[in-house]
Amino acid sequence: MSLPIAELVPPHIRAFEAYVPSKPDPELMRAYKVDHLHRLNNNENALGPPPAAARILAGFETPRASIYPSGDCYTLRQALGERFGKDPERFLVGNGSCEVIASVIKAFCDKGDNIVTADKTFAVYEWVAEFSGFQARLIPLKDYGYDDMGMLRAMDGRTKILFVCNPNNPTGTWWDRDRMERFLRVVDGRAIVVLDEAYREYVDDERFPDGMELMERHPNVVVFRTFSKMYALAGLRVGYVCGQKEVVDYIRRTHIVYSVNILGQPAAAAALMDDAEHIPATRAMVARAKELLLPAFDELGLEHVSGAGNFVMVRTPVSDSLIYRQLMRRGVMVRTMTGFRFPNWIRVSLVQEPVMRDFLTAFRDVIALSRSDGQP
Ligand SMILES: *Cc1c(COP(=O)(O)O)cnc(C)c1O
Burial level of 190, CB count in 10 A (0-12/13-18/19+)? Predict the structure, then answer.
């Protein structure tokens, strides 16, 4: 019996192409015949979480796995409130900030509405809008950065949310205070402005506009932060949104309760409280990695882009998927960027020096190959 399932599916779902995640490391290692794999594809923090978070993880008592966690991350929100000097009710925690992206879109978009963001940025804003049936207006980057004027021109009466990834993944560009203020003044509360600050903790520059402070003067601003990047808890999936209480109260209505697990909540709270040495150590690792990689890319005559954040992009002379496969055979996993509208670029996470040296050895080899005949 054949069911006409497709007829049950709305057109925007039929048109949507599912994202295909990469295979687990052991599968990949078998496929590429390597006994180790450097993960440089997801901007993970290779230092691992701060010690206090590591202690929480090591001390987890297994019977607690049978118990539901706090449905609204009560204790973690207390910690966040304390850290940022805000009412804990102004924080909404999700299963990674990806989940709160979905909650914000559900809260504000109605049939016929649209969101505005960049064309080459974190793709989840666009994906969630589209599989939810809303138009995503994608404004081309300018000099690798978000184009504020272009975004403002794209806004109309049906624009509900402007997503600004600051600093931007994958280019590392960011708007400074003046530029952000001007943008927010022109938006003038007509739409929600999401500042995705997933890489905020990597920025050490006083010109960087702190979304946590901006939201006090611009009540339409909400800020996304995550424990996946600087805090090295990507595997536990904890991210959050902060905004004015009234705004967050609306977002909470669309948000699944109990979505953050019982181990992630205390680990995130501990990581937040124990970041005084972790943040400078991570920044130093990233800075050192850049000192190694950027001159090497220059020497190879390859165009590269980087800024804030623990990643760089480099343009490859042949197809990025070919470079990916050849690096995999050498035990190095990077991110191909063609799917992110940077054809034949790769993105590389910045980690400890020995791993960066391994990457460079493999990369030089692969680039030399591509320049001889392009085939392995
Ligand atoms: C990694 C990343 C996130 C974090 O997503 P989680 O769901 O919290 O792991 C959010 N925004 C950007 C731009 C990112 O690069």
Answer: middle
Q: Is the CB of 94 under 6 A from ligand 1?
A: no
Q: Whose CA is nearest to atom 10 of ligand 1?
A: 198
Residue located nearest, by CA, to atom 2 of ligand 1: 198
Q: Report the distance separating Cα 180 and Cα 158, nearest Å.
A: 22
Query: Is there an atom of ligand 1 within 6 Å of 308 CB?
Result: no
List the CATH number of the domain containing 334. Answer: 3.90.1150.10
Q: CB-side exposure of 103: number of CA atoms within 13 Å?
A: 27
Indicate whether residue 109 lines ligand 1 (CB < 6 A): no
Based on the domain organization, do 367 and 237 belong to the same domain?
no
- Taking the centre of ligand 1 as the mean of its atom positions, its distance from the CA of residue 301, in whole angstroms, is 31
Give the separation between CA 155 and CA 76, rounded to whole angstroms.
36
Length of the chain: 376
pTM: 0.96
Tens of pLDDT along the chain (376 residues) come to 677 888 999 999 999 999 889 999 999 999 999 999 999 999 999 999 999 999 999 999 999 999 999 999 999 999 999 999 999 999 999 999 999 999 999 999 999 999 999 999 999 999 999 999 999 999 999 999 999 999 999 999 999 999 999 999 999 999 999 999 999 999 999 999 999 999 999 999 999 999 999 999 999 999 999 999 999 999 999 999 999 999 999 999 999 999 999 999 999 999 999 999 999 999 999 999 999 999 999 999 999 999 999 999 999 999 999 999 999 999 999 999 999 999 999 999 999 999 999 999 999 999 999 988 645 4
Neighbouring-strand partners of residue 142: 145
Which residue owns the Cα nearest ligand 1 atom 7?
Answer: 96
Domain co-membership, 105 together with 203: yes
CATH code for the domain in which residue 145 is found:
3.40.640.10
Pocket test for ligand 1, best of 126, 169, 350 (most atoms within 8 A of CB): 169
Domain extent at residue 299 = 5-48+277-372
Domain end marker among 234, 254, 272: 272
Strand 304-306 and strand 311-315: pairing?
antiparallel
The last residue of a domain, from among 272, 297, 315: 272
Question: What's the total number of domains in the chain?
Answer: 2
| CA–centroid distance for 152 within its chain | 23
